[in-house]
Give the backbone structure.
Amino acid sequence: MTKTFLSYNNIFSNLGFDSETVVENISRGNSGLEKFNDPSLLPEPFCASIISSEKVENEFNKIGTASKYTKLEQMMILSLKRVVDASTVSLDEKVGLIISTTKGNIDVLEKESNFPESRAYLSELGKTIQNYFGFKNEAIVLSNACVSGVLAISAAKRFISEGKYDHVFITSGDLVSKFILSGFNSFQALSAEPCKPYDKNRVGINLGEVAASILVTSSTENLPKEAVEIYGDATCNDANHISGPSRTGEGLFRSVKSALKEANLDASQIDYISAHGTATPFNDEMEAIAFSRLEMEDVPLNSLKGYFGHTLGASGLLETIVGMCFMEKNILFSSKGFSDLGVSKGINIIKDNTSKKMQIFLKTASGFGGCNTAVILRKANN
Amino acid sequence: MSEIFHIKSYCNIKNQTVSVNGELLFSDNAEDFPAFIKKVYNFFKTDYSKFFKMDNLSKLAFLAADILLKNEGLNEEENNIALVFSNKASSLDTDRKHQAAIENEEEYFPSPAVFVYTLPNICLGEISIKHRLYSENSFFIFDRFNAEHIQLYANSLLRNKKAEKVLCGWVDFDENSYDAFLYLVEKEGKIEHKTEEITRLYNTL
């Protein structure tokens, strides 16, 4: 069986334009969330993590002509370029490209957009990224709601294990658009204050925008210090409801079980859980039930939504990269926004930054359509 | 790597027709998709009230899957059938409806019942609920049907015992044009699970 590793990576967010700066900001307790009162995005005030378009353009103009690309394309290219450059992998026939996104360039549907509606097709986004870098293979776009980022890691591993590719670059991203804000607001799911995952006073989510990219590789050579091996992964559906999580956490429970089985580990061997934690009442409760059923109540757990908001199709990959960096530093970072447990099961939410020697962590995500994913990652360098 | 899988059955819905395993089972001259798909629903005696709340893409995917799976003698409790679907237009048909509801300040009225369908994988959720599939789901977007990647992905799921069977294919809905091709991959079957065969079945009708 081919081994697969998560290698060079980048986070492009308003907490910094590289993983190291972003993680440094998290370690200081800094959040990218801000309050906005911008009727052109939402008729009422909201709280989100947004990267200024001007900053993105200034950064992009150092490497190309920003006006030819949408904001999301600029973010994805800037993020992926740092990974491609750092990896020194040459983009030949054995190198794949996966794009993970829920809505891609959906903002081009707006009347005032400078781009044609055809840019909203996700395969066009794939082509734009593919052509910028000169990938030999057609971009594979994965759009599976809020689990897309974690599922992209599974997909890369699967294409590598089938012998199609030796290396796969993943880039992921979504924007905080009028489209997304209005939709989540129609569900009454948004919190106007910074979100509080798992807290008894949580009222809902904040949205966020980010591009995150990573190299998935079968090669053990030239791995960065935070590299991890993919030990097990799975995706399971709740088979319950299209917009609400299962009350028993069925799909999440099954995904973690399946990933543990593949990794040949039991729950007690997991050092840390980077959970989904959107701060909606139902999601966080569902996760607590699933982790309790898995006998993982004592495993230190956090949600990173208090730093980035919910970054949709990028969230799973973003949070995996942050988890890799945490593990390399052997520090458990606090679950921002949490103070008093507000779920029915006694799960171990990280309140303060704490040192802990770590080897293995679990990343989970859940999303609309009843989908859930889990991936288990182990330090590649001991 | 030597294990070989097969295509057990397949279903095509396009050009106002429905066929299963290459045999034409239903055709109608309804030009309009909602009218056509309702006739398909009735013809195959589908009895599932949630169908009428679905968007066009989910209706198309749901019926193509239902027509195939109802003959498979599935378990009532649960089934380990993975879903690996793909298309070109993602959920753009419904995305445009949501966008129209938020475009003007005077008529700003986003609806959660519409917004929830602005994700292509919602149709996988609908199929999973109906057929009790607590299994792997993935939704890929390609410019056109990419048999090779879907075949590799299905093989990986079967070889690694992540699924007993995989329902794969293409379900696209865009501007009243529709195209569904789903096929069930498992150990037994008459057609070998390889890219050339998949492409042949997709292009048959």
